[in-house]
Amino acid sequence: MSGGWNTIESDAGVFTYLLQNLGTKEIQFEELISLDSDSLRQLSPVYGVIFLFKYPTGQSKATSQPEDGTFDHNAAENLFFAAQTIQNACGTQALLSVLLNHDNTLDIGSNLKEFKEFTSAFPSDLRGEALSNSDVIRETHNSFARSSPFIDETQRAATEDDDVYHFIAYTPINNVLYELDGLQPAPISHGACTFDEFPEKVIPVLQRRIERYPAHEIRFNLLAMVRDLRIKAREIGDTEMLYREQEKRNMWQWENALRRHNFVGFVGELVKGVVRSKTQDGQYETWVEEAKKRTEKRLEDRKKKGYAVDDV
């Protein structure tokens, strides 16, 4: 029996190296700060975007038609579309929804090529099961999860009190703009769209999606799957751009390495060292009393502002 899937962050460095570790080449992700077509077009070629949003848990699932666009049930048989069958897998599933629909122009590597060939005749629900049970994909996905000694997310189901987030993909396939969401019964068509038109066509769709939420909701994240920007820098002879992109890769590798480490032991030893130092200097009791006074002052300040004492 396969193990579980852990939560991964919506982060350009995580997604870039996740796909690289699966065997892909010359692909990276870029986070989009502004929602405009010019910013997206500057990254061309853009193969698709991954959108992260807070999932409305109290909302009933779509039936005959989605809120925007139309279900294309026939397309589910002609492109890679997999139903989401397991918690926490939607991030990697969204990446693959873009990648495996552009394998004719991208080098997806032998592992993913074999996976797509193996599942090519499957209906969407069996594709989802095959993805969830792929040891190679799951282990690569989990290698980018933050180390936590306190929570085993593979054994924990979300509750009504949790904020639940969901990844979906938008990509142009066969001159149609598709929304690929494993929680929906079929790909959602948003109309005609060539590969070159994608930056202009996808932005209004994303804007309409965001407008469904209250104005104060800002917890969204958008990442674009693009060609490795170092290639573009070399092609145009931009040494400064090449340096920036390589430095960014170095930072991503450093951050991904930190995600794998459990720092609880380090913090524990650090606290022991501080206590030992204060004890040796004869300042331990004074240090404890000062900490108590600061805590009491914070509690008094919170009372004055009308907060309950136990609000954290």
Automatic annotation (TrEMBL):
Keyword set includes Protease: yes
InterPro entries registered for this protein in UniProt: Papain-like_cys_pep_sf, Peptidase_C12_UCH, Peptidase_C12_UCH_sf, Ubiquitinyl_hydrolase_UCH37, UCH_C
Record's keyword annotation contains Hydrolase: yes
UniProt-listed Enzyme Commission number(s): 3.4.19.12
GO CC terms of this entry: cytoplasm
Keyword annotations of the record: Hydrolase, Protease, Thiol protease, Ubl conjugation pathway
Class in the EC hierarchy, top level: hydrolase
Classification via Pfam families: Peptidase_C12, UCH_C
Gene Ontology molecular function: cysteine-type deubiquitinase activity
Protein family membership: Belongs to the peptidase C12 family.
Name of the molecule in the record: Ubiquitin carboxyl-terminal hydrolase
Organism for this UniProt entry: Rhizodiscina lignyota
